[in-house]
């Protein structure tokens, strides 16, 4: 059971009695705060070593490329996990032990010591959490507290049981501790998942846990990860000056000039693709209604094949031959010639679809 109520007391009060090294781990002190609730933990399950837990689904975010896994007894690592999840708006999953964490700190220290010794002999304590697939994730964040200098045991079990699914994945480790370093746990993770690609880690201690949000933000920035990094994000890029024009089986790309007409056109395309029914006019152009008026920036122009023109503010024109008139330049189709335009647009009417690139 999570100890939200203890969180502040732990952050403020936690001290570590010995500096410790990776060999000789420190024994942290926990304040003798009363445990809330007491007794509603699910302690009854026992260590179901032989049972594989049923796969669970992470709590989904809108960004399906990242998964944040965490285990946490008193909420510190969970807060780090939450900060990553909210920053990236991604999936989140808690890795829970089959037997709930001990409320009693001394009991938990002893249990952790035994479980870590068991892991060194290949006996991984059972966990409740397993996932069917990690295929969809580009980056998996793995968070845990440091216990006796090591990665907390439930996460070691999770990595052990999911090593094959994590092969080739980019893994970003994050951890919290009183003061002990993250280094031993990084070696443990590498040994547990030898085929994963480990990236820069984040480690917060009792003196830095009060600035979780800023530490997470700069870490994610260093990793080059952010909401805007999401390829699955279908938000159109309004900074682009490129559109595509699809006619039948041919798709042209075009480069827009920058004026209030093209900015309004891009806003229109940001709402969705625009399909225009065009007819041939004067053996020099295809012209069709946009369906709304855009700002005009008319000037005297002699067109070339491939020029995109706004006519009278509400008609979209593709020129395939020269014409001189006062109208608004929108842009030009890349690599256009009279021949390749006519091959795609035909000699009569044609329907084209405009999209932001
Ligand atoms: C069993 C156990 C062992 C711990 N061992 C260490 C340790 O070796 N070094 C350390 O600095 N902190 C140690 N701590 C303190 C935790 O790493 C620290 O409080 C951490 O932030 C707890 O994270 P959590 O709130 O996500 O459970 C230990 C805590 C527990 C419960």
Pick out its properties.
357 residues; 25% helix; elongated; 8-stranded antiparallel β-barrel; Rossmann fold; 18 strands; disordered N terminus; Cyclophilin; alpha+beta; binds flavin mononucleotide
Describe the structure.
By secondary structure, the protein is of the alpha+beta class. It folds into two domains: 4-229, Rossmann fold (3-Layer(aba) Sandwich); 242-356, Cyclophilin (Beta Barrel). Helices cover 25% and strands 28% of the residues. It is built from nine helices and 18 strands. The protein has helices at residues 7-13, 76-88, 105-120, 153-161, 163-166, 183-192, 212-223, 260-270, 338-345, and strands spanning 15-16, 28-29, 63-70, 90-94, 139-147, 150-151, 170-177, 197-198, 202-205, 242-247, 250-256, 274-281, 285-289, 299-302, 307-311, 315-319, 324-333, 350-356. The strands form three sheets. An eight-stranded antiparallel β-barrel has the order 10-11-17-15-16-13-12-18. Strands 3, 4, 5, 6, 7, 8 and 9 form a seven-stranded mixed beta sheet that branches. Strands 1-2 form a two-stranded antiparallel sheet. A hairpin with a 3-residue loop joins strand 15 (307-311) and strand 16 (315-319). The longest helix has 16 residues, at 105-120. The model is unreliable at 1-25 and 31-49 (pLDDT under 50). Bound molecules: flavin mononucleotide. Residues 14, 16, 25-26, 28, 72-78, 108-109, 112, 145-149, 176-180 line the site of flavin mononucleotide (FMN).
């Amino acid at each position: 059971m999570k100890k939200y109520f203890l969180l502040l007391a732990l952050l403020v009060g936690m001290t570590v009695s010995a500096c410790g090294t990776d060999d000789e781990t420190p024994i942290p002190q926990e304040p003798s705060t009363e445990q809330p609730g007491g007794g509603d933990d699910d302690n009854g399950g026992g260590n179901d070593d032989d049972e594989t837990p049923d796969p669970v689904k992470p709590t989904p975010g809108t960004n399906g490329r990242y998964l944040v896994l965490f285990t946490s007894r008193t909420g510190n690592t969970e807060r780090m996990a939450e900060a990553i999840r909210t920053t990236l708006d991604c999936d989140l999953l808690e890795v829970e032990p089959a037997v709930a964490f001990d409320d009693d700190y001394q009991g938990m220290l002893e249990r952790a010591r035994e479980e870590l010794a068991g892991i060194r002999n290949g006996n991984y304590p059972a966990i409740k959490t397993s996932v069917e697939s990690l295929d969809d994730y580009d980056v998996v964040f793995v968070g845990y507290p440091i216990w006796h200098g090591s990665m907390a045991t439930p996460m070691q079990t999770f990595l052990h049981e999911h090593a094959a699914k994590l092969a080739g994945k980019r893994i970003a480790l994050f951890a919290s501790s009183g003061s002990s370093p993250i280094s031993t746990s990084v070696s443990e993770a590498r040994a547990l998942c030898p085929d994963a690609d480990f990236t820069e880690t984040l480690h917060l201690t009792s003196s830095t846990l009060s600035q979780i949000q800023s530490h997470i933000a700069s870490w994610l920035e260093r990793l080059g990860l952010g909401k805007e990094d999401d390829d699955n994000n279908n938000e159109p890029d309004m900074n682009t000056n490129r559109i595509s024009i699809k006619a039948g089986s041919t798709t042209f790309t075009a480069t827009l000039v920058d004026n209030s007409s093209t900015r309004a056109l891009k806003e229109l395309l940001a709402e969705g693709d625009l399909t225009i029914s065009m007819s041939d006019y004067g053996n020099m152009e295809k012209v069709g209604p946009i369906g709304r008026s855009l700002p005009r920036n008319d000037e005297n122009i002699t067109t070339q094949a491939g020029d995109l023109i706004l006519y009278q503010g509400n008609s979209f024109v593709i020129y395939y031959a020269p014409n001189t008139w006062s109208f608004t330049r929108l842009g030009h189709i890349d690599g256009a010639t009279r021949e390749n335009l006519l091959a795609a647009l035909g000699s009569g009417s044609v329907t084209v679809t405009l999209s932001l690139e």
